[in-house]
Amino acid sequence: MKFSLQAKDIHSKARAGTVTTDHGEIQTPIFMPVGTAGTVKAVHQRELKQDIDAKIILGNTYHLYLRPGLEILEKAGGLHKFIGWDRPILTDSGGYQVYSLSKVRKIKEEGVTFNSHIDGSKHLFTPEIAMDIQRTIGADIIMAFDECTPYPCDYKYAASSINMTHRWLKRCCARFDSTEPKYGFNQTLFPIVQGSVYKDLRVKSAEFIASMEREGNAIGGLSVGEPAEEMYGMTEVVCDILPYEKPRYLMGVGTPINILENIALGVDMFDCVMPTRNARNGMLFTRNGIINIGNKKWADDLSPIDAESDLHADQVYSKAYLRHLMHSKEMLGAQIATLHNLHFYLWLVKEAREKIISGEFYAWKNKMVTILGNKL
Ligand SMILES: O=c1[nH]cnc2c(CCNCC3CCCCC3)c3[nH]c(NCc4cccs4)nc3cc12
């Protein structure tokens, strides 16, 4: 994997770059649609490619390991082949999903034991197992097995948590560096900075992660309920320590405003379930603010969902029609709303990249931040 920089903003730490993988290039800043069980819910691969031009999607290690399972994925020749996606894929380590999905789990030095949320069967994830699973899935970028420190937590807990994450990282690197890709495409491992909302722990974790000299770095433990100002403060501290010439991935972030503010702090890659999850609840993000399509005010509004958008669905379907579909619990409603939100997120980061290149990013970002929160 390679990373090159094309432009840097003068009023902020925003930058425009290109990540090059064996499955293609990714222009940054980039938003990565979240796939769960091998699909971005309610969206076809063709739509991801042609309608919204998604450059990279996320695969969910925890889900894929449980269902369809590694045997089928290996038989298919990896996740790219299994789902029919020939562009880059990033998979998480499965650790975060264990915390957020499976009820019973125990965290020990060795790893995490958990009961499957599907059939209750007992499983163990360790740093080594997480590496082997992601080798079998075959994603271009794979994530270290970390502990996402819960928020809030006291200093002592946060300090012991980063020490565990750092010991697990060494085991991830040892295992990853002593195994080969299974399908002939190169894979790269990103470590993850933790430290909760404690500045000195963030410095310690960022310095340790930087010292591992991997091809890219991630920032974890944020967007877990902390106030936005805390998120920005920790991101700034970490971005100032992580190497300038490597991509920085802020995990689980976030709202459109969060993304713009973090681009200004030097973040290049983002993922979040919000555009897809909120779409299914009728919350549409637009360049003029937020539309709750279920609101009665849209019932007879026959104007296009977004007349300024180059997304076909935004042009041909009206707000009234989408509201009708959502109220009727029609599948097409979720499909249109999801496509709209992902298209908006990808438009937003592409617009940010163009403004960084043209030198207009800072003023544009401040204007957008005042508009994007509007309730329409
Ligand atoms: O420290 C972390 N370590 C590892 N993963 C984290 C994640 C999951 C990122 N998305 C993975 C995807 C992989 C493919 C399947 C789906 C998840 C986070 N998500 C959030 N906020 C989420 C949210 C923000 C707002 C609403 S939810 N904070 C996170 C912090 C960490």
> Compounds present?
the ligand O=c1[nH]cnc2c(CCNCC3CCCCC3)c3[nH]c(NCc4cccs4)nc3cc12
Percentage of residues in strands: 15-25%
Rg over CA atoms = 20 Å
Largest sheet: 5 strands, parallel
Main sheet: strand order = 4-15-14-13-12
Summing up helix and strand content along with how strands pair, one would put the structural category as: alpha/beta
On the 0 to 100 scale, the average pLDDT is 96
Euclidean distance between termini CA atoms:
42 Å
The CATH architecture classification is Alpha-Beta Barrel
**Relative helix content:** 40-55%
User: What best-fitting shape do the alpha-carbon axes yield?
Assistant: globular
Question: Can I get a quick summary?
Answer:
With 376 residues, the chain is of the alpha/beta class. It has helices spanning 45-51, 61-66, 70-76, 79-83, 95-101, 127-137, 155-177, 199-211, 228-239, 256-264, 274-280, 312-316, 319-327, 331-358, 361-372; strands at residues 2-8, 15-21, 24-28, 30-31, 57-59, 89-91, 105-107, 112-115, 122-125, 141-143, 188-190, 192-193, 217-219, 248-250, 269-270, 283-286, 289-292. 43% of the residues lie in helices and 16% in strands.
Which structural traits does this protein have?
376 residues, alpha/beta, TIM Barrel, five-stranded parallel β-sheet, four-stranded parallel β-sheet, 15 helices, 17 strands, 43% helix, globular, binds the ligand O=c1[nH]cnc2c(CCNCC3CCCCC3)c3[nH]c(NCc4cccs4)nc3cc12, queuosine biosynthesis, TGT-like_sf, tRNA-guanosine(34) queuine transglycosylase activity, tRNA_ribo_trans-like
